[in-house]
Amino acid sequence: MEIIHISAECYPMAKAGGLGDVVGALPKYQNKLGHIAKVVMPMYRTKFLYENEWELVHEGGQVLNSNWFKYSVIKEKTNKLGFDLYLVDINNLLDREKIYGYNDDTERFVSFQLAVCDWLSHWQHKPNIVHCHDHQAGLVPFFMKHCHAFRYQLADVRTVFTIHNGQYQGQFGWDKYYFIPAYDTWNWGYLDWNNAINPMASAVKCAWKVTTVSPSYMEELRHSARGLEAIFEYERGKCSGIINGIDVDVWNPETDNYLVEKFNKENVAEGKQKNKENLASQFGLDPNKPLISFIGRLVDEKAADILPEAISQSIYQYGGKANFLILGSGDPHVESQLASMNGQFKGYYNSYIGYSEPLSHIIYAGSDFLLMPSRVEPCGLNQLYALRYGTVPMVRNIGGLKDTVVDFGNENGYGIKMEQSSVWDIVYSTGRAIDLFYNQKDRLDEMRKYMMDIDNSWDSSAQHYLDLYQSIL
Ligand code: ADP
């Protein structure tokens, strides 16, 4: 079957978090399983754009806010990603360096979706599945089913909507009703939630199937979804959770060129130690102590705000027996707190405030523990990368973390789990990590080997998506 993924992110063209990783990997695995999967996304001005060759495949026009705009679609020439990648360009809207964070993000992503629907309506053979990811593609199911400009061509094409993060819904006021192309006005309810146009709510109502990136997160959304709880309850019949996989070609400690020492499960202890020594010399830490790291967006969802307190307390309480390292960016207040601790806890703690793909690989490889005390975690990929690199995940028991990590106190367990996102839980878990590192070396070694053997690749998850598509065709 033929599938087109519509997304705001796709690694390596543009990635801000897990969405980019998923959309950069899932289509590749769907192609490997004998299908044709493609991706369409905005043409941001990123390094990947300038370093690759493209060909023009379509040009067209659409209307937003009574203004006609021209768009073009280009395609990466060599299929080097394992799937066809298409980029949509719209002057003055999508030609930016960053993915999000502009005042006109609503205009940017609505016009992107209009352009994609217009382009799709020109395809001679329609795709079997239009797979929309997160709210930046959330209006597409409504446009395809209800808007006069597209429904004649696209209403029968099956749509799937995947929620990677329900916190961001893309809602905007009805004063911008003219962003939506003409439709029969009695269908306005398909756009509305709490007196606003809500792309995420609209997608849940209009898509043929809705998925989240883990089964536990689907359950949690029915109780806590930033005001959308009821809709997940009403629509539960078409909702399901499919756990993300990881791209095992990109995330492979045996072939990872970012590492000073590549390793596999046979030499995991020595391999990790070499990588830790490299990190320790770069960040002024002690390679003989356990290294507990955090990688991620410094936002409330990830409980980044409690990290400064939890780390300081852990360092005092355990007399500096563990080292901490942070890689992240986000809330400026948390950023400055974490950066200011570099001097205060020299030799025990350090941080790199910013985004660095290479450093993230080196930290997954060189750390002993990866801390994820998240308040919300739809799936979480970091813990899956940690497992692949023999790093023990220290995670809150929620969302995808609940589904993918088993506490080492249980049979066949390999992680450290905490019930709450609290300073106390992090300090307590740090104590367990320290004990495991110094007093249970054999157990830690066994756990590392066991973790590296777990298959979290896309192979089975990609098949689950194909089964889901099949159920609506
Ligand atoms: P989310 O999508 O909520 O941010 P996920 O765990 O699903 O969280 O995915 C996070 C992805 O982003 C991982 O690939 C992680 O390595 C990467 N990442 C997050 N912050 C940074 C950073 N500062 N530098 C490099 N990679 C990062």
What do you see in this structure?
The protein folds into two domains: 2-245 and 458-472, 3-Layer(aba) Sandwich (Rossmann fold), CATH 3.40.50.2000; 265-453, Rossmann fold (3-Layer(aba) Sandwich), CATH 3.40.50.2000. It has 17 helices and 18 strands. It has helices spanning 18-32, 47-51, 105-121, 140-146, 148-154, 199-206, 215-221, 229-234, 268-283, 307-317, 332-344, 357-366, 382-388, 399-404, 423-439, 441-453, 458-472, and strands at 2-6, 36-42, 54-64, 67-76, 84-90, 129-133, 158-163, 172-173, 192-193, 196-197, 209-212, 239-241, 291-298, 323-330, 349-353, 369-372, 392-396, 416-418. Helix 1 (18-32) crosses helix 17 (458-472) and helix 10 (307-317) packs across helix 15. The structure holds adenosine-5'-diphosphate. Adenosine-5'-diphosphate (ADP) binds at residues 17-19, 21, 165, 295-297, 327-329, 355-357, 360, 379-382.
List keywords for this structure.
Rossmann fold, six-stranded parallel β-sheet, globular, about 475 residues, binds adenosine-5'-diphosphate, 18 strands, single chain, 2 domains, nine-stranded mixed β-sheet, alpha/beta, about 20% strand, 17 helices
Question: Layout of helices and strands, plus pairs?
Answer:
Elements lengths: L1 E5 L11 H15 L3 E7 L4 H5 L2 E11 L2 E10 L7 E7 L14 H17 L7 E5 L6 H7 L1 H7 L3 E6 L8 E2 L18 E2 L2 E2 L1 H8 L2 E4 L2 H7 L7 H6 L4 E3 L26 H16 L7 E8 L8 H11 L5 E8 L1 H13 L4 E5 L3 H10 L2 E4 L9 H7 L3 E5 L2 H6 L11 E3 L4 H17 L1 H13 L4 H15 L1
Parallel strand pairs: 1-2, 1-6, 2-5, 6-7, 7-11, 11-12, 13-14, 13-16, 14-15, 16-17, 17-18
Antiparallel strand pairs: 3-4, 4-5, 8-10, 9-10
The structure holds adenosine-5'-diphosphate.
